[in-house]
Amino acid sequence: MESVGDTGVSATQRHCPPDIVRVHHEGITWMIEPGAEGVLVGPDAPDWLRLDREAGAELVKSNPARRVWRVTVGRRAFYAKEFLKPRPIGRLVRFFRRDPASTEWRAGRAVASRGVACPPLVAVGRGRGRGFVVSEALDGARVLSDAWLVEDRRALIAAVAGLVGGAHANGVVHGDDHPRNVLVVCAAGGGVSAVYTDLYSVKMLALVADERAVQALSQLHQWFRLRASGWERLRFLRAYCLERTGGVREAARAMVRRLAPAVAAESRRQAFRLWAKRDRRILRTNAYFAEFRLEGDARAHVALPSRRAGVFPEFAVSRRSPAEWGEALENVVRSGATRESMCCEGDDSDGGWGRVRVTRFAHGDGTLRGRESFLLGHFLRNRDLPVRWPVACVVGSETSLLIESDLERTESLLGVLRAAPVVRRQACAALARTVWCMAEQATSIVINLEDSFAFHRGRGAWIIGACDGVGFAGDTLTPDRLRAESALSLCVALVGAGVFRKTDGVRFLKGLEGVRWKTAWRSMADCLGQVEGIMAR
């Protein structure tokens, strides 16, 4: 370990504060907070360029541009964000922009100087085409998306609203207000606090205007919309405005009235842009999907590793190479069976996600139906809706195949509604939640009582089955309108089938409309009465 002067050091390092220790260790030039240099670059320090071989390093998440590690050195734990060596286009971008590690280091220090909570930054390093930002690990910290499932939501809402409101009051805009960029720390005494992480996109402003605030709140609203009730979202906005206005309730109420409609509209616009971006990604060969040619004129399109395991826990078919995929799919194409068992990594311990089912479409049905069903299934997943995972599709001149994850212990909609009252109550509540999520995500479905929904008893949830009948509404139809239309068509079909009772309808509407269920029931009762009269005749 040796000290370095200004020669060959970046501008960030030349103008670093005088209390920062600058060292050069194994090809990496570091700037380290006093007291941590012996740990990070000492004799017991890890090999930062080969963290995948270190016993004390655990990979937390990764993408083609960067990886995040949890590194344990002695009794201290750190999180290290490693910016990988960029590709040629990435090097061109970095030529015009600051190095990302130095940018995040400077942003973190600036955020902390304005009193906004973030993990204490310990060091920044550059060398051999890579960059590192090291921060202290906070004991008991979890990302908001994980803590939301197990912690007291009132406390979480207050903590996150205080964090975002306090940051905006001090002129700090995070730029990527996603729940995985918010850490929740639960103290031993029961207190809850929130801190920002991933500070690369931070903007430091003299004043945060309403337009900036609406954009930031809309990013959180995207996630809250499917996981929080309307009252919880309103409570969050009230707490945020109260923090922004310094506790002045009259000003906070005025801000709520001003921001609430703008946040709802901007959130919807952001959602449509996000869905369109994800939908276009399906057709490209990159880190998410791959396309290659099989024997003859057949072409295969396969899904690569799912990076949203928290939303869709599935079996790990993704570690296959294109050659292995090609061999497996060629065997399926040559087989005449409509149901195959493909050798997939993983197991069936989670209720049958390790199985796949193969649907074969004949030439007379249209050879593109497998590809269309593959795309529609992923369109639904892009909107966080429950659907079987379309693993792969094969399109040829004579046949078309769709390979999906298969679920055991599933029953059709009619079968569940003819079951015992306990199962029927659970199914009605879960069905209301599914229809509500579909309306929020601008999705409608043509009701087919046998194929539209499959109830998975192990998960207590509905899986959308008939992808061919799915429609995606534009921004002209509001979620309330879609909910009303979906509820009416579904209830009419179920009453016509003779499996939907009045108590089932009331329970379904209570789960779908909440306190407004009586209004929805009155508007639906006349139509249902006509259906029952026709059945009686």
| Total strand segments | 23
- Spatial extent as radius of gyration: 27 Å
What's the multimeric state? single chain
Share of helical residues: 40-55%
Biggest sheet overview: 8 strands, antiparallel
Q: What ranges have pLDDT less than 50 throughout 5 or more consecutive residues?
A: 1-15, 337-354
Task: Write down the overall mean pLDDT.
Answer: 79
The tally of helices reads: 16
* Category by helix and strand content: alpha+beta
Q: How widely separated are the two ends?
A: 92 Å
The gross shape turns out to be: globular
- Percentage beta strand: 15-25%
| Strand order across the largest sheet | 1-2-3-7-8-6-5-4
Element layout with pairings:
Blueprint: E1 2-3, H1 11-14, E2 21-25, E3 28-32, H2 37-40, E4 57-62, E5 66-73, E6 76-83, H3 88-96, H4 100-113, E7 121-127, E8 130-136, E9 141-143, H5 144-147, H6 153-169, E10 172-173, E11 182-186, E12 192-196, E13 203-204, H7 210-227, H8 230-244, H9 249-282, E14 289-293, E15 299-303, H10 322-334, E16 355-362, H11 369-382, E17 390-395, E18 399-406, E19 410-412, H12 413-417, H13 421-440, E20 443-445, E21 453-456, E22 461-464, E23 470-472, H14 479-496, H15 502-513, H16 517-536
Antiparallel strand pairs: 1-2, 2-3, 3-7, 4-5, 5-6, 6-8, 7-8, 9-11, 10-13, 11-12, 14-15, 15-17, 16-18, 17-18, 19-21, 20-23, 21-22
Helix pairs in contact: 6-8, 7-9, 8-9, 9-11, 13-14, 13-15, 14-16, 15-16
